[in-house]
Specification:
By secondary structure, the chain is an alpha+beta fold. The chain has one domain. It has helices spanning 3-14, 27-30, 39-42, 51-62, 64-67, and strands at residues 32-36, 69-75, 77-80, 84-87, 96-104. Strand 2 and strand 3 form a beta hairpin. The longest helix is centred in the N-terminal third of the chain and has 12 residues, at 3-14. The protein starts with a helix and ends with a strand.
């Protein structure tokens, strides 16, 4: 998989403001794309999943075959190629709704 291709497709689909400016990183970071979910997009009704974060997460899953995406994470849910969605709870911690994590196959 190619994280640069994932970034390019995200920008093509959602616009240039979907991702922060790229930073130099190591090989493992190069296989992962973190898509920030702005606070204004996270501010939603009680007990309701933030729309923008889920929109980005489901976009990644829908394009997983073409872009060789093997893992998508958002809030307390993780999708993995071959096994689908599952809940991943962390003790004493609120679900992370600040970013969508996308990992491509190597």
């Amino acid at each position: 998989g190619d994280a640069a291709q994932v970034r390019a497709e995200l920008i093509r689909t959602f616009g240039k403001d979907v991702l922060p400016a790229a930073k130099a990183a190591g090989a493992s970071a190069a296989a992962t794309v973190s898509v920030p979910v702005p606070a204004s997009a996270r501010a939603t009704a009680e007990d309701r999943a933030p729309q923008r974060g889920w929109e980005l997460a489901h976009w990644a899953v829908a394009h997983s075959d073409d872009l060789l995406i093997e893992r998508v994470s958002y809030a307390d849910r993780v999708w993995e190629a071959g096994s689908g969605w599952r809940t991943e709870r962390t003790k004493d911690k609120e679900p992370d709704t600040t970013a969508v994590g996308i990992r491509v196959a190597r």
